[in-house]
Design goal:
Blueprint (H helix, E strand, L loop, with lengths): L6 H8 L6 H7 L26 H14 L15 H14 L3 E5 L2 H13 L5 E5 L4 H9 L5 E5 L4 H4 L4 E7 L11 H8 L4 E4 L4 H4 L9 E5 L13 E5 L1 H14 L5 H12 L1 H20 L4 E5 L7 E6 L3 H7 L4 E2 L9 E3 L11 H6 L6 E5 L5 H12 L26 E2 L3
């Protein structure tokens, strides 16, 4: 008769040593599958789980209510947690270099949970740096969850802190201008106040904010983590103490992630480094070509690279949106296909127009999420959509060359400080 496997002893011997990001992306959250005789992770669709030990269930629920720690033993109820979703959370925490991660039904649900955790401690004030994703900006500005926000630049963070400040929030590279901040310097300015860094655009492939002092790392997992435009989710990577509080908020508010979405996200993580690096190489080349295009006034591309490009056009940006044929004119980002949109009309429409412009989101700015298509096919479509300035047409006249421009007709490709 076979001797039952001592899984604790097995884990002690086989616990993974530090691994490269590409390896973690493939194996994190799946390390136990082979010894279970499985290759693909199972999808657990149960909403409830039978138990004949009601006293034991009561004790486990009491423990969760106290600390928010994941219950030992079999699951209890889908709103407390799900095994498939837990695999994704484990994998994302490994990629971000944090103790834990907590997944939600959307990125906005994840941000809302963070705000509610801090508000429950009487810390409703938020210090934030623009630009942020438009709905994040709106959630803070409108005070929909009872929060109060002070907008500042990175240099003003320390001065903006108050005794009731519960959070400092930045996004780097920022949506949609791709502005970058020095996360380490910002974290230092925060003192004991947690720094929340939205890492949606960069992903852990390009930067790991926790290594630079951020206590909380936010992702709209709908974007690069899923990577195929077929799943909506959000996740916060953090330490275990904060994760416990987030789980309690998730349980109370019901912002849970569906198990099928958890499965798709875990699958998406396995190709994340390959997708991000391939799309980033194409984006860098497109940014270079856009900077030389006569109808482009300025190109914004992050110093750390990435698959996002923002560019301002001479003339009507809506004509570019209407003119693409291969590129998909749609909101969101991070998919395998290239997407383009006009932030002032869509993703940042909810932000006050003056605040939007002050944050660098001009009415002529376009945001493009570069996918995995061939660079020549993308450029052919983009070049045709941009068209050429018509001789004598005032709306296509070149503006004064931006600082750093190599010539009057070649606008600068600017990286953000």
């Amino acid at each position: 008769m076979d001797t039952p496997l001592d899984t604790q002893a097995y884990d002690a011997v086989r616990r993974p040593a530090p691994r490269a990001l590409a390896t973690e992306a493939v194996h994190a959250g799946r390390d136990d599958l082979a010894r279970q005789g499985l290759h693909a992770p199972p999808i657990d669709l149960s909403t409830t789980y039978p138990s004949y030990d009601s006293r034991g269930e009561a004790a486990r629920i009491d423990a969760f209510a106290t600390t928010g720690a994941e219950p030992d033993g079999p699951p209890v109820y889908g709103r407390l947690g799900n095994p498939t979703v837990a695999r994704f959370e484990t994998a994302l925490a490994r990629l971000e270099g944090t103790e834990a991660a907590v997944a939600f039904a959307s990125g906005m649900a994840a941000l809302s949970a963070v705000l509610l955790v801090r508000a429950s401690m009487g810390l409703r004030h938020v210090v934030a740096v623009r630009p942020l994703y438009g709905c994040s900006d709106h959630l803070l500005t409108a005070g929909l969850l009872g929060s109060e926000v002070t907008w500042t630049d990175p240099a003003g963070i320390a001065e903006a802190l108050r005794p009731d400040t519960g959070l400092v929030m930045v996004e780097s590279p920022a949506n949609p201008t791709l502005a970058e901040v020095d996360l380490r310097a910002v974290a230092h300015a925060c003192g004991s106040v947690p720094l929340l860094a939205d890492n949606t655009f960069a992903t852990p492939v390009l930067q790991r904010p926790a290594e630079q002092g951020a206590r909380l790392v936010l992702h709209s997992a709908t974007k690069y983590l899923g990577g195929h435009g077929d799943v909506m989710a959000g996740v916060v990577a953090c330490d275990e103490e904060f994760a416990g509080r987030l789980r309690q908020i998730r349980f109370a508010t019901g912002g849970v992630l569906h198990p099928l979405a958890g499965y798709l996200l875990l699958r998406g993580l396995s190709t994340l480094p390959v997708r991000v690096r391939a799309a980033s190489a194409t984006a860098a080349e497109l940014a270079r070509r856009l900077a030389a295009h006569p109808r482009v006034a300025r190109v914004h591309y992050p110093r750390i690279g990435g698959a996002m490009i923002a560019f301002e056009v001479h003339g009507d940006p809506h004509e570019v949106i209407a003119g693409v044929r291969l590129i998909t004119p749609a909101v969101s980002l991070g998919s395998v296909d290239t997407l383009i949109q006009h932030p002032a009309s869509i993703s940042h429409r909810v932000v006050d127009a003056d605040d939007r412009r002050d944050a660098g989101v001009s009415d002529r700015l376009l945001r493009m999420s570069v996918g995995l298509e061939d660079v020549e096919d993308l450029w052919s479509d983009l070049d045709a959509a941009l068209g050429r300035p018509r001789r004598g047409a005032g709306r296509y006249r070149h503006a004064a060359p931006p600082r750093g421009a190599t010539s009057h007709n070649k606008p600068a490709l600017t990286t953000q400080p």
